[in-house]
Amino acid sequence: MRRAIPALLLLGALLRASTVPAQPIEPIQAKSYTLEDAERLALRNSAKVLSAEQSIIIAQQRVQQAWFQFFPDIGLQASATRYDARYPFALAPEFRSVLLFPSNRNGIYSGRTYMTQPLYAGGRNMNVLRLSQTALKQAQSQYEAVKMNTSYSVRHAFYQLLLNQELLAANRRHLADARAALARVGGAWERVEAEALVSQLRAREAEAEHAEQLARLDFRKELNIELDSPFRVVGALQSRPIDIDLTKATVWAMELRPELQSETYKAQMDDIAVSLAQSRRIPTLVAAGNYEVTGQEFPLRQNNWDLTIGLKIPFAFDFYTELRQKRAEKRQGEIQRAELQDRVRLEVSQSYDQLQFWQKEWPQREKEFRHLDELARAARAERRGLEPIRAQTALLEVESRYLNALKEHILSRAKLERAVGRSLTP
Question: What is the mean pLDDT of the chain?
Answer without folding.
Answer: 87
